[in-house]
Amino acid sequence: MPAKIHVVANQKGGVGKTTLAVNLGAVAHAVLSGENNPLKAATPQDGPSPVLVVSTDPQGSSVWWSGRVKENGGLPFDFSQVDDPKLLGRLRTLNYAHIIVDTPGSLEDDRILQAALDQCDDVIVPMTPEPLSYEPTRLTINQVVAPRGIPYRVVVNNWDPRDGLTDLQQTAKFIAACGWPMCDTVVRRYKLHTRASAEGQVVTQYPKNRTASEAREDFLRLALELGYGGSPAGVPRQAGAQALVEEG
Question: What is the pLDDT of residue 2?
Answer without folding.
Answer: 80
